[in-house]
Amino acid sequence: MKSMPTGGISTVSSKLVNKFDDAVKEFQMVLGGDRVIVAVSGGPDSMALLHLFATRTKLPVGVFHLNHEFRECAQDEAEFVEKMAKKWQMKSHIYRYNVIDYLERTGESKQSGARNVRYSLLEQCVAEHGYSKVALAHHSDDQAETVLMRILRGAGLRGLSGIHPVRGYYIRPLLFATKSDILSYCLENDIPYCQDQSNFTDVYQRNKIRLHLLPYLEREYNPEVAKQLCTMAETARADEEELHNQTEKLVARHTWQNEHQLFLDRHGYLRLSLALQRRVLRLCLSRHRKSEFGLNFHHVETLRDMIDRNTSFMLTLPQVMVNGTTKVIIFGQAKQVIWEEQVLNVPGRTRVGEYTIDAQILAVNDQQPTATYIEDFALEDLSFPLYIRPRSAGDRIQVFGQNRMKKVKDLLIDAKIPQYMRDNLPLVCDNKSVLWVCGVRRSEKGRVGAHTTHVLRLVLTHVKHCHGSYPVL
After folding, report:
1. Which residue of 306, 346, 424, 440 could cross-link 359, Cys pair, CB 3.0 to 4.6 Å?
2. Percentages of the chain per state (helix, strand, coil), in multiples of 5
3. Which helix (H) or strand (E) holds 213?
């Protein structure tokens, strides 16, 4: 650790100042009225960032530090950050958390677990103390390492866009500065900092890339490889943002939702290009799950392949069930409404589960039914009372226009009715047979003929209308 300065805050102009000012202005990272908290580890990057906020802005600035309890010197670093915050007249928020215990409980890796704890406590600090922006000290060397690491793991355009300068209330004003810029700035302004010795070990993949792979690429292939990786990230980020905006508009146009499910119009989806299909599916999955964590390219491709190959399907992905019908792709499962058999009110309205059935007795010469969810039955051919009930094992129906009986189960499969809907779909029956699998097919029994004088008209309505203009898929 360098010695602590004896005077107040002062600054020597350098190119880091210009890069900081340019980034803050170009990306509108802070505005008047913002309260900024800087995440400070005590290293040169975060100490330089803290100094820049103190000298280049007039905003209220706070200091966040987390003692992970990983190393013996961790407490010394926490005390150093707290002392510097006090010296520079900033409010400090020093947290201590047993990350090792957290890792044992969750099974996460050391770096991933520490990151999750750090961001969780940062967000807690923001909420409790009213900060509007969180400043992080990532720089262009971090960007190059991140992009190269993602290339090695396999990444699409989004992964290649690397670290973003602004994401939500997180800002990174040093993202376009190099490590060399930062160290020069600390030297010029006599800014003390701590040195984390774990950065110089080969334990972590990022360290291996920083210490070995990038120097090798610079030495053997391109001395400006880090700069080129950052340029690629910047180009990819702009393209990614444009494609994401297009995807947002497509999802708004082709989807709708209820409390439990998200619906994607299948025909609209199939008209899209391959690239936009993948993006629309990923966005639908992440929106329904309220998270992208655990989703990967394989999951999206599996779903896309199912949509291409099958008119009807059911697919289980992490934290979401997806059903396909001829009209829609359904993300999530409907809340199951339990209901029991009841007598159909004739005439009148009967509510069963999420459906209602209206029954009217009409003269045969009245207006004929014109909708899929309306059926007329010859009144004199029916055995009253009529019942509405869920399907039962072994149910059969003589389908309209056919002489043979067919299993209701097979009828629903042939009609591509999603599995989750089949047990809730009402069946209208008399005391002898199934008259109507509502919204799917009616029976031959009750056919209106030349000698029919009155009909029983049944009208099916889906109460919640969660499937748009068609209550049954």
Report:
1. 346
2. 40, 20, 40
3. none
Where does the chain hold its CATH 3.50.40.10 domain(s)?
342-462
Mean local confidence (pLDDT), 166-173: 96
Which residue type sits at 159?
G
Which part of the chain has CATH 3.40.50.620?
15-232
The torsion of the CA quartet 222, 226, 228, 230, rounded to 10 degrees, works out to 170
* Domain 15-232 fold: Rossmann fold (3.40.50)
Q: 274: burial class by Cβ within 10 Å (0-12, 13-18, 19+)? A: exposed
Q: Sign of dihedral through CA atoms 196, 200, 204, 208? A: positive
Residue type, 238: A
The correct answer on CATH 3.30.465.60 for the domain covering 258-331 is yes
Give 465's pLDDT tier (boundaries 50, 70, 90).
very low
How many CB atoms neighbour CB 334 within 10 A? 19
Task: Give the model's pLDDT for residue 3.
Answer: 38
For residues 172 and 49, what is the distance between their CA atoms, to the nearest angstrom?
9
Domain with CATH 3.30.465.60 in the chain: 258-331
Q: What would the mean pLDDT of 265-277 be, rounded to a whole number?
A: 96
Is the per-residue pLDDT at 324 higher than 70? yes
Residue-level pLDDT at 198 = 66
In the chain, what percentage of residues exceed pLDDT 70? 92
Amino acid at 445: K
3-state secondary structure of 435: strand
Q: 293-321: b or e for each residue (b if 16 or more CB lie within 10 Å)? A: eebeeebbeebbebbeeeebbebebeebb
CB 71 within 8 Å of CB 95: no
Least confident of 69-73, 261-265, 278-282, 397-401: 69-73
Give SS3 for 434.
strand
- pLDDT tens-digit series, residues 172-194: 999 999 999 999 999 999 999 99
- CATH H-level superfamily of 342-462: Phenylalanyl-trna Synthetase, Chain B, domain 3 (3.50.40.10)
**DSSP readout, 392-411?**
-TT-EEEBTT-SSEEEHHHH
Yes or no: say if 355 and 323 are a contact pair by the CB < 8 Å rule.
Answer: no
Residue 335 pLDDT > 50: yes
Q: Using CA atoms, how far apart are residues 463 and 358, in angstroms rounded to an integer?
A: 12
